[in-house]
Amino acid sequence: MVNDDDASQYLRECAIAALIIVGAYTLFITELISSLILFIIVAVTLPRWIINVHELLHAKSSEQINGIIRCLGISPVPLSIFTLSYQQIHEIHLAHHRHAATESDPDAYHIRGNLFLIILNSLTTPEQSFLRWVKINGFSPQLGIDLLIKLVFLVILALLGGKKFLFFLLFIRIVYGLGDLVFFRLVHHQKGEYGTFEMKLPSIITTWGERIFGRTVIQATINHDVHHQNPRIAAHNLAKVREHIMVS
Length: 248
Fold this sequence. Notes:
The protein is built from twelve helices and two strands; from the N terminus they run ααααααααββαααα. The chain is mainly alpha-helical and about 250 residues long. The two termini are about 15 Å apart.
């Protein structure tokens, strides 16, 4: 089961990912690395932040998370001027677990339906999740404060990088969109059926995937069915308990 040590590790991983991404952007705007190198760094690093926040959603409430992650939510660099904070993401994700891949799932719009539409929805998930949340739950003062903080963050990054900021934000959005496509559509739709499925990959892909993206990213993805059976199991333990949980 996930414990406080796991949660502390997730927080450390988030901090490291944030420092790497912002550091890479700094190197990019000072022309010490190319746009290709920046994209590779973002592609390797951003999924680590995302998956560690996902794991935190099952371990800590909004009140138990530090203010930075509570505000930024799903990405260390604001994905848009309209994004949700940890509290809203937490509630949406718990509802996703209760109604996974059904029409009642708040994430159904980027799981169910035509693949082309799903791709478009995955690329616009931050904005769509925000608008859908506000439509149902309204706009809270705290959400407004968080949005203002993230807007200031975006403006600072844009002023520092100028036109280079557009490349950076584009890379962030592409990587986020691809990750969203994998972590929602691919693990909840197989052979024309909706549900929650195991992703079976050749061992060599799993091994290299863990080396590149980290064990938590790969294990939480390929064992997503086990995760949905018991979300309080830490990602690095999912493979170990697969036989017991699925038999149960």
